[in-house]
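Quick one from the shared queue. A colleague (R.T.) flagged Enoyl reductase (ER) domain-containing protein as missing a structural entry in our internal table.

Convert sequence to structure tokens.
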Amino acid sequence: MSTTSQVITCKAAICWGLGQPVTVEEIQVDPPKATEVRVKVLCASICHTDLTSLQGFPHMCFPLALGHEGVGVVESVGDEVTTLKEGDVVIPTYIGECETCENCVSGKTNLCLTHPVRLNGLLPDNTSRMSIRGQRLYHVLSCATWSEYFVSDVNYTVKVDSAIDPAHASFISCGFSTGFGAAWKEAKVESGSSVAVLGLGAVGLGAISGAKSMGASKIIGIDKNEKKREKGEAFGMTQFINPGDSAKSVSELVKEVTGGMGVDYSFECTGIPPLLSQSLEATKMGTGKTVVVGIPAEPTVSLGMLSLLLGRTMKGSAFGGLKVRSDIAIVANKCLKKEFPLDELSTHVVPLEDISKGFEILKDPNCVKVVIKISH
């Protein structure tokens, strides 16, 4: 029997306010409206953005249904949905692509003006399909994946091949794809160039993989966790710098291994404010380019202006510059062909009921990504 018109009661990870613990509780998920789909979640994963959402970024709206990385099966569709059907395997995205607005046709950006990033925790009609004890629930961006079911607007939902590994699909719904796209689409790394990647989490490893695929000859991974050396090498890193081993700055260490010149491209994947200037200073004077993908813990940061005035470029990036209609399909196809060693990312698995344990696991030096198994 179709459940399209029925409210579903299920479990989800909820935070009631700043400083409050994350709890798994029963919630209600309404049927999808005309341009929406309701998705039964297979698995999800923890991203750094989920942690910042508990601190009030990108909004201060609570109670909050958590999670934005994940993969699931379409359970029901709205009356006007023609591109997806029940049973399709999909991943959520936090940007859309109308293919007709000024930004989409420009070829200069992946940030659609018709379907922009949702920063208020609600669906495009400024309502929510999720509630708890009669109270509206907000989500981090376009949906909430740490839930057995969620509803998303179809423009923020992308179909993937059902043969894809669920954990891999979850990784490419945000973190890994963001790094990969930053090297591929934002920086457009040139063959034979040099690259520095600051922070070797899933995003940083994605940037290494993207730089490798573009033909970079020197790919320097930078992380204070010595255990990330092996991970970086698995994705294509050629050199590793542990800044904890030296009193010198990151930029000085990078210049030491590049003949004093710095790299052609750097990718700041940590969100640590002082490293913004360091990532810029680590690039070549006059031509160096820095792509910022790490979410800062502070709303404003200081920046070494001299580095900019000496001809370097710094660019912010959302979702690594990837367009969801065309580019995600390419990344997903590479996953299916095992072109990325994504099993290296999946270091820990927890059931939804133990989500709080997942936060503790993140402190483990061996942890890269925590996969959340969603039970039904």
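The two ends are 17 Å apart (CA to CA).
DSSP finds eleven helices and 19 strands in the chain.
Added to the table.
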